[in-house]
From TrEMBL:
UniProt key word Calcium: no
InterPro entries in the record: 7TM_GPCR_serpentine_rcpt_Srj (IPR019423)
Full protein name: G protein-coupled receptor
Keyword entries, A-Z: Membrane, Transmembrane, Transmembrane helix
Transmembrane intervals: 6-24, 36-55
Record bears the keyword ATP-binding: no
Length: 99
């Protein structure tokens, strides 16, 4: 895993947990439902940080195509019983091949 990812993921998780504590402990009554919205954002950010660290995403951008790829190969047999990969053909059309 990339060292930069560790440098961002670990503080991101710690600071969001700290934010959840501060919301729970020190939020004023005047915030109302806004404190719940902040809590949802913090929990979702923790989730996304963990998933990004596990999946290790990268972007693929060309003139007619954009997508997201994973640099590590997780077991995807639950999602696709036959491994399938998408490739760009010479005419820049996406074709699907069975491996």
């Amino acid at each position: 895993m990339n060292i930069l990812l560790h440098n961002v993921a670990v503080p991101g998780i710690i600071l969001n947990i700290l934010l959840l504590y501060l919301i729970k402990r020190f939020s004023a009554k005047g915030l109302g439902a806004y404190k719940y919205l902040l809590s949802i954002f913090a929990v979702y950010d923790i989730y996304l940080t963990i998933m990004h660290a596990i999946i290790d995403l990268g972007a693929v951008v060309t003139e007619h195509f954009y997508g997201v790829v994973s640099y590590n190969h997780l077991d995807t047999s639950a999602f696709a019983p036959t491994p399938v990969r998408s490739v760009l053909s010479p005419s820049n059309q996406i074709t699907r091949r069975t491996c």
